[in-house]
Amino acid sequence: MTTPRPPYLAVAVTGAGWHPLAWREPDARPAELLSAKYWTEVVGVADRARIDLVTIADTFRRRPPTTDDIDRPISELAAGRLDSVLVASRVAPTTAHVGLLPTVIATHTEPFHSAKAIATLDYVGRARAGVTVDVAAGAVEARLFGRRTLPTDVHRRDDELFAEATEYAEVLRRLWDSWEDDAEIRDVETGRFVDRDKLHYIDFEGRFFSVRGPSITPRPPQGRPVVAAATTSAAASVAFAGASADIAFVGAHDRVAAARAVDAVRAAQSTAGRDGDTVHVFADLLVHLDDRESAAADRRARLDLGLGTPYTGGTPVFAGTVAGLADLIAELTDPAVGVTGIRLRTATIPHDLLQITTRLVPELERRKLFRVSDTTSTLRDRLGLGTAANRYTRTSATTGGARQ
Amino acid sequence: MTEPRTATEPRGTKQVHLAAHFPGVNNTTVWSDPRSGSHIEFDSFTHFAQTAERGLFDFLFLAEGLRLREQHGEIYDLDVVGRPDTFTVLAALAAVTEHLGLAGTINSTFNEPLEVARQFASLDHLSDGRAAWNVVTSWDAFTGQNFRRGGYLPADQRYRRARQFLETAIELWDSWSDDDIVADRESGRFLRRDDAGAFAHRDDQFDISGHFPVPRSPQGRPVIFQAGDSEEGREFAAARADAIFSRHARRDEGRAFYADVKGRLAAHGRTPSDLLILPAATFVLGDTDAEAADLAHDVRLAQVSGQTAIKFLEQLWNRDLSDHDPDGPLPTIDPIPGENTVAQGRASVRIHRDPRDVAAEWRQLADARNLTTRELIIEVTGRQSFVGSAQTVAREINDLVQADASDGFILVPHITPGGLDRFVDEVVPVLQELGVYRTGYPGHTLRENLGLGAPRTANSPVGIG
Ligand SMILES: Cc1cc2nc3c(=O)[nH]c(=O)nc-3n(C[C@H](O)[C@H](O)[C@H](O)COP(=O)(O)O)c2cc1C
């Protein structure tokens, strides 16, 4: 990459928006948050605006992630949610361009199931699938699945959770590789539907899983769908992103913090032996947008006042105009910093989402900070991740895995 | 789209239910036909589903297998290999259909109740009430090697886990009431009660508690299917299922199965109309009955090649017969009795009888009719249910339904994705003329279209047996 590409633009959606009181906004549709209509509209808006990708948040809890520490009765917050992989699958046929990244929770689920679900999303969405691999740290989630205890010490617990997530992502990729692209031969002459020499047992043996493989689903169109990971203050989360992700989401409110976050991801990448791999670092921002700065500040203040506490969701918050946000994006994505994308968490839907799609996108385009990606490309190609070499293919340059 | 209206139903005439099974990993799927398309690409599913919906079918059905089949420790390569993820496909199909039910086979052994209940509740929301779950109980350690816990269940515990799994899932679905979401902006009240979704379940399989994250879905809970055939399987179905996916599509065995299962319902406080019996059925259509018979023969030849016949034989003989000539007589050596170790990953390969007795029967049949090995396998594995002109097939389907051999059929075409086209174009109109098939979808949800009542809730007087 010689001339730096304009930054990628991602939008993170959940429920009526990230702010816990977003559902009470006049334009919110709180009674429809579980309907297909709602989700096709939300993701459809991003798709038509040529946003690069949408991440759909998920948790096994009733409330959106990062709102569980809010000290209010749950009956006053939007509660109840759908499985994000199913939401992404439901909207895939109704959208054409936008990358679709639902969340899978590595802590209590089976990588075998997730691998085939995301591979299938890639078929259904025509090479636009990715996944955010997340962990569930809480005893609340552990009880939902039963008979599983996590260490009480926070550091030990995080180390364990993210070590498990690292194995999980490895299993996903091996399962995606477990079919060579041309394994289906339909050779009428010999009666063979597949060439079984092109199907591979992954024989993964780790601390948390052992998985034999191959996948039941053929290698998806992108080879390997895009894997994303959100980093937190836990060092283990950065290590996980460095070891496993194509995209790392980091919280950074200015260029100094952003550069530091990029360094941390690069160091983790290096530790994991992935120096040659492209790992995008996307800066995460929670956004309240309006025509005037004061109006945006008022929006934020009104929502926070209702809540009784300022809400951040653990992310830097921006409240202002689209021009102001474009300034901040320019700062964070200055080539010297190393951040290659921005993920915007919409404080409220539809208001903030529409501000992004109808106003921010043209503003960024004007400043050459946004480019409509080639609409025929796969999500991987769009992100410059290159063709995912299959570790099991004999002729492949990478010889990571043993042939069975 | 046709205006929904209830077909006028002459008194005493049962209405036929139809559903479509997407062809896949099985030797009945003929992939070598030039008309055979992809079993993975979404376009195939779209075509198949939209055809089924055009035919006013109740639902589309997906089977499941969680490990690629093997024979002699090698991946079995003669049939279609590979399938997409069930939930992903069904959720995507909800986008390209409007009325069609979306039924997924999901195993109760290799999953956890919270996750499966959440997925089905999500699917029910995202399809506006069209989700159905075929609860299967495959248990083998071979498949278990793809999952966290490995070795898995002894065979005799699989229905125990399945029962408790389903009970737990029902508790989760019932943990929200229809009116728990208030979403009143003015008062700031989103939930009617703080503890919406609260549950606590403890038995010898599951010890879980907390709040179920998905509010009550349009159908309350998905339609429940059961597909096992054993005594335990039938009891399980009689206690809890809304429909059975059976193997008994022929008249006499169908009537016996129907009577047996419907007869079990009273003991569970249910009535015969609470459970539909829907056998899997294949069909071959021709312009005339004679032409269809010829085509059917060709289909059988395509389904059972010489190699496939040998593989079948090995499954019963439980030994390597790769040197055996499929066009010659059956082997003279005897099967090896005991655990079947030759073929793995086949949910249906369970031989209840001594294989030596079966082999003796097959030899007798082959001798009497002078059949080669391949011809014999074609004969004994044949399940072609309906062969004939559209008139003939429609009449036979209707006869079986009126004779209480079934409440309808789950059709398994042998070609993907166009295998249903002709049936919908030609047989459905005849069934409509006979007055035994709908001319529009009568309801909005799958439950309504199947004629099933609203699900009983936890407070209903009927528990599981
Ligand atoms: C018509 C029919 C279809 C079935 N489809 C599947 C399937 O797709 N996947 C699966 O794992 N098992 C499937 N099964 C297997 C059953 O779930 C069950 O494990 C098997 O029939 C053994 O149970 P039983 O002893 O009660 O018959 C099917 C069974 C029948 C009768």
UniProtKB/TrEMBL annotation, chain B:
Its EC number is 1.14.-.-. FMN binds at T105, Y159, S230. CDD domains: Nitrilotriacetate_monoxgenase. The keyword RNA-binding does not apply. The keyword Oxidoreductase applies. Belongs to the NtaA/SnaA/DszA monooxygenase family. This is Monooxygenase MoxC. It comes from Gordonia insulae.
